[in-house]
Here is the input.
Amino acid sequence: MKRTHTCGELSQDAISGSTTLCGWVDTVRDHGGIIFIDLRDRYGITQVVCDPDDNAAATEVAKSTRPEFVIQVTGTVRARPADMVNARLATGSIEVVGTDVTILNRSKTPPFPLDESKAEKVHEELRLESRYLDLRRSSMQQRLQKRHKMAIAVRTFMDAQEFIEVETPILTKSTPEGARDYLVPNRVTPGTFYALPQAPQQYKQLLMIGGMDRYFQMARCFRDEDLRADRQPEFTQIDVEMSFVDAEDLYGIIDGLLASVMEASGHPVPELPLPRISWHESMDRFGSDKPDLRFGWELKNLAPVFEGTDFKVFGNVLKNGGCVKAINAKGLAGVPIRQIDEWTELAKSHGMGGLAYIRVQEDGSWKSPITKFFSEVEIEGLKSTLEIETGDLVLFAASESALVVNEFLGRLRIETANQAGIIPENEFKFTWVTEFPLFETNEAGRLVPMHHPFTSPLPEDMHLLDSDPAQVRAVAYDIVLNGVELGSGSIRIHDPVQQGKMFDLLKISEEEKESRFGHLLNALAYGAPPHGGIALGFDRLALLMAGGNTIRDVIAFPKNHKGIDLMMDAPSPVDAKQLHDVHIQLDLPPEVEA
Ligand code: ASP
Here is the structure.
């Protein structure tokens, strides 16, 4: 070995011993001819001292080093003088007196400082271009180590529960997870393509049919979606599938899994079982299918207060079977009017006429454009329903569609809570959201699966499948942490007849049924066990556990917001021969040709 210790290892009990360390020069300082080097590796930082009076040759080499040079230092460990002890470093009570310093490799001056306090201010694109340098920063090192510990915890836990990790193909066939596929041209059969998996959904179900009983995989998934701030075209899921279970069994397993991941990443273990809320209740109370339970400010139904009101705006909506609700943003009565204007714009973008509000002023009086239309009884009703106090800002929403009201107020609930700064940062509030609707209606007015077409309807809603499919609930669930969807899953349809019927309801043609799902329908006909599963976004979980500003902070080599790997410069053009080999001719838009 080129070293006897790491740079994070030496402490007082090593004093007087000899050591050889290797690492990067973090800083080098010349104090009147005596050279001090902070030597850094993944494990920590050790101070090296070279004194020309003790060892002129070593000091000469030490003096010629620059930050990010790679060096090897042999020397003796000694205690630092009492006034030089650095309590912030694990190695802060010792230093190494260098007797032999060798430069193993030199370094150009990095394009940005690796110093934690300065690097955060560097433009992220610059850091991504030289990610190998960015990875040397201690925060990146710590986050990737935590991610590793989490992955180990997942594997240990799943193994103990009799799950086996099975790899599924990357070159495969399109699966309906709702995004666009990445395609790979097939040289051998011209005109055919593989798709990269959006998720191993069909494989994991086929593994259950194959008798594997309990499967998991740290699975890489690929989705060609419009990129958003915290989205990556490729990402990792903890993919899980189990046979002979119902949703209850699955919740138990995932509760335990999350508890052990929390523990492995140094967070308090949550009380189990994790709470559960139905999709319907979650939408009603929090206006979201991923409720942030770290604070209250629930949506309150005002139908009982305004039933038969003279105030037309609410009265008409209620008469037509619509919905009137409000939230109480505590303490926000004083927000500037332009803030209210912004939220009004938000209301309009959700299809509402405007935003009605009440500001409860210091003297207890109400400032509001609408309360003059309310009766005494209505005002009393509002006060008690919303627990109104001095300093509160009450925000209303009314629409014939309850979904519109819920989604808007749910969004406003988060925005106002952020504005008020009331969301605790170091709390972890998990919840299961259960019984999602089986279908939703897409923009073209067509029924599409809310999860995916393999999801089983809730048995007690089965009778509605033909008459009122939009009302059918599914045995589908999400696990949510602090308002973030960590994962979704479902109990699957295991009966081929029912699966065929589902495709029919979704208006999937016989031809498409055969070409896209024939293999699954066939397999289901050979004694498929009842089964179900879930997939948890591992990157997102790592971000919540290990900290960081974006999902890119917990991925070693992420793509930027345009899906580009700036370091490798991928994607990039390929040469004509490669295209010819895979039978592809380009038909580029004129602006790209130019
Ligand atoms: N394949 C689904 C997804 O990736 C998860 C599941 O149903 O287990 O969201």
The mean pLDDT is 95. The chain has 19 helices and 22 strands.
